[in-house]
């Protein structure tokens, strides 16, 4: 911090922040300024440091845009400084996660919750509107062939679970049908942009005073791809029905009063049409692809549960959510 010219003095109000299971976050105050430190877990995984470097780069690139996100203060890519861990400092965001808690006035006002939903779509549109090359992310991903490799990439991921002892293989009705129709109906025209990659309510922080999105968080899956997949991911996990996916939205989903999927698409389109010219005609395809990807990701925990590497009840729950996601995928493709 001294090397970066940041204020000195004692470290005050030091405490861990909850949220996420992959990395460690600690907030503190020093020299009259609040900070959040983010680093990998105590036992670093193979790609943790590379992921943290990418996150820091994205947050730095978003500075100066209107995308609601923490702002990067300083990053340390040198692994020798903190016992092998890359880390960075970012601004503290005052807000709450609506999948964990729902304070007033949000809990008592359906109109506030409705606007919270619309603002989730608008925040995704703001991210999709950023010119990734203009902010220095032209070499951040591999947009060429991005949509073409999605289905095969995730089918390979599903196949890899077969290496886990005891896993009998995927029992997912509609798997082959969804994969086939995704390949057959893949959009042929799209515009690359910044893709958060895990865009749902649990990765949004809301303002404590109203329905605004205070920050999009957890950028570890960010890349350059098709930003419409973020909207598809939001729709795939949206708690607009009494089904297993509603569990992903927590208190906000239980409280109700949220906009419909069509209203979310309209809110996104207000920005997309005016700024980026993105075509939402293929939106059901993106919703189906998001269901396909997320379902396969969650099935991985079910496979690990068969191998004794995850709790059996957790594996059962996520498998049921996977089945619901594939039902949703078929509904998207039928629409």
From TrEMBL:
It comes from the Bacteria. The keyword Cytoplasm does not apply. Gene3D superfamilies: 3.90.1200.10, Phosphorylase Kinase, domain 1. CDD domains: ACAD10_11_N-like (cd05154). Residues 1-20 are annotated as: Disordered. SUPFAM superfamilies: Protein kinase-like (PK-like). Residues 13-257 form the Aminoglycoside phosphotransferase domain. GO terms for molecular function: transferase activity. InterPro entries: ACAD10_11_N (IPR041726), AGP_Transferase (IPR051678), Aminoglycoside_PTrfase (IPR002575), Kinase-like_dom_sf (IPR011009). Keywords: Transferase. Pfam families: APH. This is Phosphotransferase family protein. It comes from Actinomadura spongiicola.
């Amino acid at each position: 911090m001294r090397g970066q010219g940041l204020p000195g003095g004692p470290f005050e109000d030091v405490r861990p922040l909850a949220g996420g299971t992959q990395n460690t976050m600690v907030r503190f105050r020093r020299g009259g300024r609040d900070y959040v430190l983010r680093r990998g877990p105590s036992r670093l995984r193979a790609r943790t440091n590379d992921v943290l470097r990418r996150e820091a780069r994205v947050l730095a690139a978003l500075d100066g845009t209107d995308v609601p996100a923490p702002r990067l203060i300083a990053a340390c890519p040198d692994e020798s400084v903190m016992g092998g861990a890359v880390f960075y400092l970012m601004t503290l965001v005052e807000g709450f996660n609506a999948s964990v808690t729902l304070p007033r006035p949000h809990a008592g006002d359906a109109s506030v919750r409705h606007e919270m939903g619309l603002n989730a779509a608008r925040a995704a549109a703001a991210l999709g509107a950023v010119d990734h090359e203009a902010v220095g992310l032209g070499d951040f991903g591999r947009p060429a062939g991005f949509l073409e490799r999605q289905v095969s990439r995730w089918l390979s991921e599903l196949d890899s679970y077969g290496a886990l002892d005891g896993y009998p293989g995927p029992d997912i009705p509609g798997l082959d049908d969804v994969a086939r129709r995704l390949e057959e109906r893949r959009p042929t025209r799209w515009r690359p942009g910044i893709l958060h990659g895990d865009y749902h309510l649990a990765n949004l922080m809301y303002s404590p005073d109203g329905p605004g999105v205070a920050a999009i968080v957890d950028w570890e899956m960010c890349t350059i791809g098709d930003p419409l997949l973020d909207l598809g991911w939001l729709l795939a996990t949206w708690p607009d029905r009494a089904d297993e996916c509603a569990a992903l939205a927590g208190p906000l989903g239980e409280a109700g009063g949220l906009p419909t999927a069509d209203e979310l698409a309209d809110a996104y389109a207000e920005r997309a049409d005016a700024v980026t010219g993105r075509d939402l005609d293929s939106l059901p395809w993106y919703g189906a692809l998001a269901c396909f990807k997320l379902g396969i990701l969650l099935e991985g925990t079910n496979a690990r549960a068969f191998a004794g590497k995850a709790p059996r009840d957790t594996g059962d729950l996520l498998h049921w959510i996977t089945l619901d996601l594939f039902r949703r995928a078929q509904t998207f493709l039928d629409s």
